[in-house]
């Protein structure tokens, strides 16, 4: 199949990539045999997420010998989730697999995922990371806490240790596409939709080349997005702490009055400062939590696009090649 010939290949593989020039040739070398071996029509939607290195040029080069490779270029870096969204909207396949560019998730599992979906008439096949020993201890530790908190908040919806390596049917992709995009974390949205699913497990490997694009700050943002997306619990916690704090304040107030009346007035500087700063901190935390949700509501209201597509080889270029 060449670009534009068949609007509906059986499989689309969506790959978000941000500054992955070193990885892309390795990815192509491993992904292509896997997809060719399925014997089905396919396309690979490589979403260049505003890379500032030679990623786009590398893809253009790879496309010369691999017409099923499609390049979608975003104007500016939109982030992993938004790049995935861009790919999901543009993918044409009956089944769509999302895969990171860095070969941490082995492309070889795609065959198994497709088999499982076709054989069981299933809509979603999750890739489960059975072994993450290649990730840093810090990443594994924080990820474990993250998944535990989310499981708690959602009542355990969705498999734990499932990242963004998964296969989805056209129906699932359409359902995902119909949801608002900002602050959306796909790995929690998809299980919440409740389509019939199964999972395959794989060993998470080390990055094939290049560096992780998820620094600490991005991980914090992903966690906040995920938690505010799936749960109102932090808001309730804020209210609850406020109430408890109020009760405590009443107790402290009464005891102050009592000591005043009984003439046991102490200098009390330490306790005053202590109480004032404790309550200020508490108020700031609660304000912050409210701010998170307000920000989320505001972003929804604004409804700005989360990404901007500059180029799609399937649209602007009916003939494969540069
Ligand atoms: N990525 C992206 N946009 C970004 C950051 C990352 O498209 O702003 C891509 C990146 O190229 C990779 C995938 O998202 O294909 C996962 O990123 P990374 O491997 O850096 O994250 P990690 O595996 O360390 O969590
Ligand atoms: Mg990675």
Automatic annotation (TrEMBL):
It is a multi-pass membrane protein. Its main location: membrane. InterPro entries: Glyco_trans_2-like, Glycosyltransferase_2, Nucleotide-diphossugar_trans. Gene3D superfamilies: Spore Coat Polysaccharide Biosynthesis Protein SpsA, Chain A. The chain crosses the membrane at residues 237-261, 273-294. GO terms for cellular component: plasma membrane. It is found in: Membrane. It comes from the Bacteria. Coiled coil: none annotated. Residues 12-173 form the Glycosyltransferase 2-like domain. Keywords: Glycosyltransferase, Membrane, Transferase, Transmembrane, Transmembrane helix. One of its GO terms (molecular function) is glycosyltransferase activity. SUPFAM superfamilies: Nucleotide-diphospho-sugar transferases. Belongs to the glycosyltransferase 2 family. This is Glycosyltransferase family 2 protein. The lineage of its organism: Bacteria, Bacillati, Actinomycetota, Actinomycetes, Propionibacteriales.
């Amino acid at each position: 199949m060449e670009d534009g010939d068949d609007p509906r290949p059986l499989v689309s593989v969506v790959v978000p990539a941000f500054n992955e020039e070193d990885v892309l040739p390795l990815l192509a070398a491993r992904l292509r045999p896997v997809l060719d071996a399925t014997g089905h029509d396919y396309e690979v939607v490589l979403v260049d997420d505003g890379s500032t290195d030679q990623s786009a040029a590398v893809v253009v080069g790879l496309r010369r010998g691999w017409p099923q490779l499609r390049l979608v270029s975003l104007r500016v870096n939109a982030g992993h989730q938004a790049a995935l969204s861009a790919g999901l909207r543009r993918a044409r396949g009956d089944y769509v697999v999302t895969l990171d560019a860095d070969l941490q998730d082995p492309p070889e599992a795609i065959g198994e995922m497709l088999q499982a979906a076709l054989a069981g008439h299933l809509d979603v096949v999750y890739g489960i990371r059975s072994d993450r020993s290649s990730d840093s201890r810090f990443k594994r530790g924080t990820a474990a806490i993250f998944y535990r908190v989310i499981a708690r908040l959602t009542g355990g919806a969705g498999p734990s240790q499932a990242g963004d390596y998964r296969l989805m049917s056209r129906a699932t992709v359409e359902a995902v596409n119909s949801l608002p995009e900002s602050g959306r974390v796909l790995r929690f949205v998809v299980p919440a939709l409740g389509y019939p699913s199964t999972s395959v497990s794989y060993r998470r490997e080390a990055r094939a080349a290049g560096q992780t694009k998820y620094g600490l700050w991005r991980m914090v943002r992903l966690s906040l997005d995920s938690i505010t997306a799936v749960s109102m619990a932090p808001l309730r916690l804020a209210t609850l702490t406020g109430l408890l704090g109020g009760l405590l304040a009443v107790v402290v107030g009464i005891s102050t009055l009592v000591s005043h009346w009984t003439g046991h007035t102490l200098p009390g500087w330490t306790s005053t400062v202590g109480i004032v700063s404790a309550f200020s901190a508490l108020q700031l935390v609660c304000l912050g939590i409210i701010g998170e949700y307000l920000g989320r509501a505001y972003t929804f209201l604004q409804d700005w696009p989360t990404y901007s597509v500059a180029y799609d080889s399937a649209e602007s270029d009916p003939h494969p090649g540069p």
